[in-house]
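Hi R.,

Here's the chain you asked about this morning:
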Amino acid sequence: MTMTQGEMLLLLYDELLKRLRAAELLLEKKDYKNFDGQTDRAAAIVRYLRGALDFSYPISNDLYRMYNFFLVEINRIKASRKADHIEELKGLVLEFRDAFKEAEKKVSE
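And here is the predicted structure, written out as tokens:
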């Protein structure tokens, strides 16, 4: 209960990255059942992020579209089972996480 909203957001992005990394490892092991579970959890995090948007801020519309893109990519990953698709999405999520981390740092100063 002592975390700021920015810290909680970063935690969600970290968890999303963790789920994508786990999916990547499970894909290498051809453990498709658990792979599907990790991609489902990743999608649930993105849906939560999308649902938590406050549309009184103009950027929320852009974030909504980006989160929808993330969901499409997660579905593509689940269907194709290609590691390079996971790597691409991890890169995008990491960019978002780093941008929010920088914003949180500036807000707290």
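One quick note: The radius of gyration is 14 Å.

Cheers,
M.
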